[in-house]
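Figure 2 data, in text form.
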Amino acid sequence: MSVEDPRFSFPSAPSWKVGAKQNVLGTELVVYDPSTPKWDEFPQQVEWNLTSNRVFLFGPMTKFYVYGAFQKQVAGTGAWVPMVKEDAAKVMLAPNWYEWLIQEMAVYLGNKKITTNDEARHVWPFLNAYLMANMDKLPKSLLCPHPTAPGHCVPTKNTAWTITSAEWAAYGEKVFTGADIGFDYAPLGFFPFNQNSEFMVNGNVPCALPMSVLERLDVRFTFMRDQSHIFKKAADTNTDNYRFSMESMQLCVEEARLSANFDATFTKKSSRILNYPGVTKLMLAETVSANSMFHKTRFLDIAAPEGMFIFALPKDVIGGTYKFSSNTDGKIFRPLNLKEVSLSFDNEGFASREPNFGMVENQFVEVKQLFDHYVNPPFGMTIDPDKLSLDLIRNCGANSVFPHAYINLCNFASKNRVTPVNKEGAIMTATENLDILLKFGTGGATDGVTYFIYLFYSDVNQILDMKTKQFSSPYLKK
């Protein structure tokens, strides 16, 4: 068989010569200052009112930018002074510290809040710490380009997050500089600013928003009043006070200039339905009596999920009273002591034999869990292979700083759902109850924690009806 000599294969005409047919003529950056009046030290609420007759694009250029400085107030004085790198040996920050300061983030279209998840306040900063610590290198470098970003304030080597750890020392000297710092902030799963399960890689490109149709979006951040919960002092004798003084928070948006023909097609066709990619999360917060061997719960009337992610946090997290200073071992999640998770969808189990994927401590199943973290990862986010090992998966991650149980509910390397025994695939198109039975190991459930059970969908997050100018979720009840 002959092979054509590549020296006789010539390229096509330059692609830029089709400019007369291109849809996007160019883009421009617009920086929005908040409508919130100027604040002292730290605001209670920051809001942006977004209007435009163009199309918003989301990606590396559309993001929030935070600017401020860490300060300390020496005991017995009233003055606040900049913190310096030597302070990193005296006090440290909670993992993913900036999100601990946020009580709520919301986007409103008119008077209606665009809802993308069903989860409790104060929990998602911990989950995002796990995602940031284990995220693949390329999306993280695009998501957190500044070394001062809170997404870098996490234990990426899966060693304890303590004041003596090398990772804290490296991050601490970057933010305790004696001067102001700044960083991009693109909150995970915050529609429409952060779409997809990954950020700008593996084909995960966010979709454009026709602002001329929507007329106005209101974006609102509500912050915690007290900051003491994000700091942990090295010694009880340290009586100094600490804070992050946020001088400004801006929003940069990339706007597209469209050709007249494409603009008419894209924004003027009122019957158009636009599906937006993203991750939808459903959560249950379960109070389990200490030493209990079994616990039952259920998700009501839901579509079959892609997977289940279970972890535990101290009980005072969900009430908003948890302080990082109470952490004594450097683990971010608490131990689960979980032995098995039995599931049934529409009253039918997913397996008729043992071992099965719910037996999270089985020696055969733990290898499947390792594989699933690679191929069908939690929340659809590609994990850095260097952060995965059987030792960190075994026994629900007992040797990890993020102990958790992950159950993939999709078939091999796809998003086709596992179908319950004695059911046909059509059941996956219906909404049914998902019943859950947690079975614990010797000693029972962990004392002093809340168990959080997350389900997720990583395909379509929001649907925009151009005719009614309303968003809706395919997975959340109206």
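Caption note: Residues 25-273 form a domain with the Hexon Major Viral Coat Protein; domain 3 fold (CATH 3.90.249.10).
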